[in-house]
């Protein structure tokens, strides 16, 4: 996600323009089913990654209208963190625990978890069940990030990092507008 904040044009190129390219190619080639993979961060996005994924979801759902009478159908699968995958927070936490200091963005946040096998099963079943226009969301375990400190070794220190630049920018704008 930080890569999207620091490279906003790439985030837009990948998630929005790339999504359009896939939609156009699928319609042009008569692909019957397209399932776009999305993220829980597309719900009420607070960063560019989530915002571009939300935009991509809306484009994919609307692609059914663009396909018209053709057989192409488009849906989305939205899920959370895949444990142990590239980009997973678990290896980061394990490394931080080894060093004795774990960083949390905000203890009030909730993370949704599934294994790679669960993710694959969910995607396959979504493709099998789709008719076009759905956003499939699995029922998966959630973990309130306030439980992380309770599971840390006693000698590990906890650092709360906050949301980063976008949060301080929002504070600045709301202060500026209220004066």
Tally of contiguous helical segments: 6
Secondary-structure element pattern, one letter each: HHEHEEHEEHEEEH
- Secondary-structure content class: alpha/beta
Q: Would you identify the regions where 5 or more consecutive residues have pLDDT less than 50?
A: 165-179
- Would you tell me the overall average pLDDT? 81
Q: Would you count the extended β strands for me?
A: 8
Radius of gyration: 19 Å
Bulk shape: elongated
What portion of residues is helical?
40-55%
Q: Main sheet, how many strands, which sense, barrel? A: 3 strands, parallel
Strand content: 15-25%
Distance between the termini: 32 Å
Strand order of the largest sheet: 1-2-6
Explain what this protein looks like in three dimensions:
There is one protein chain. The chain is α/β, with parallel strands linked by helices and 179 residues long. It is built from six helices and eight strands. It has helices at residues 2-6, 8-29, 48-67, 89-99, 116-129, 165-178, and strands at residues 33-39, 73-79, 81-82, 101-104, 110-114, 135-136, 142-144, 157-160. A three-stranded parallel beta sheet has the order 1-2-6, with helices on both faces. A three-stranded mixed beta sheet has the order 3-5-7. Strands 4-8 form a two-stranded parallel sheet. Strand 1 (33-39), helix 3 and strand 2 form a beta-alpha-beta unit. Helix 2 (8-29) packs parallel to helix 3 (48-67). The protein is elongated, with a radius of gyration of 19 Å. The two termini are 32 Å apart.
């Amino acid at each position: 996600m930080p890569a999207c904040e620091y490279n906003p044009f790439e985030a837009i190129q990948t998630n929005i323009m790339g999504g359009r390219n896939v939609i156009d190619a699928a319609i042009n080639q008569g692909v019957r089913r397209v399932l776009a993979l999305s993220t829980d961060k597309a719900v009420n996005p607070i960063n560019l990654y989530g915002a571009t994924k939300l935009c991509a979801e809306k484009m994919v759902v609307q692609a059914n209208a663009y396909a018209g009478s053709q057989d192409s159908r488009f849906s989305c699968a939205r899920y959370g963190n895949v444990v142990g995958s590239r980009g997973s927070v678990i290896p980061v936490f394990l490394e931080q625990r080894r060093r004795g200091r774990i960083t949390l963005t905000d203890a009030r946040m909730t993370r949704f978890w599934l294994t790679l096998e669960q993710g694959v099963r969910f995607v396959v079943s979504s493709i099998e069940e789709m008719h076009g226009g759905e956003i499939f969301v699995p029922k998966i375990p959630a973990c309130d990030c306030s439980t992380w400190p309770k599971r840390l070794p006693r000698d590990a220190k906890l650092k709360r990092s906050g949301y980063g630049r976008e949060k301080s920018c929002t504070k600045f704008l709301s202060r500026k507008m209220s004066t």
